[in-house]
Amino acid sequence: MSIHQKFVDSERNKDVESHMDLFHQDAEIVFHKSGNTFSKTEWASMVAGMLANPKFVNESSRCVYENDEIMVSHDFMSYPDDTREAVMLVALLKDGQIIRMETGATLLD
Known about the structure:
With about 110 residues, the protein is α+β, with helices and mostly antiparallel strands. It contains 3 helices and 6 strands. It is globular, with a radius of gyration of 13 Å.
């Protein structure tokens, strides 16, 4: 199963443990919009909060490209503050796990 499919399944199943298993111990997560960077531990805490909230919804996800080194996806997301974004996610892979992930988001009307 592809990393993309595992990523989407873990979000839809609200499975924090499976989601975090996709990340390398030295993973770095970057939010392009804010410039904030997070470690795997910091990301785990954020993911737990997001997945616990029923208003955090991945409406749809499309794998743009994936191989052993990179995964690129485009998603439509809904958030607890009733906003929606189109999110481009680029993940560099190492040993079958995400070592660096960066997202860029565009607010939707």
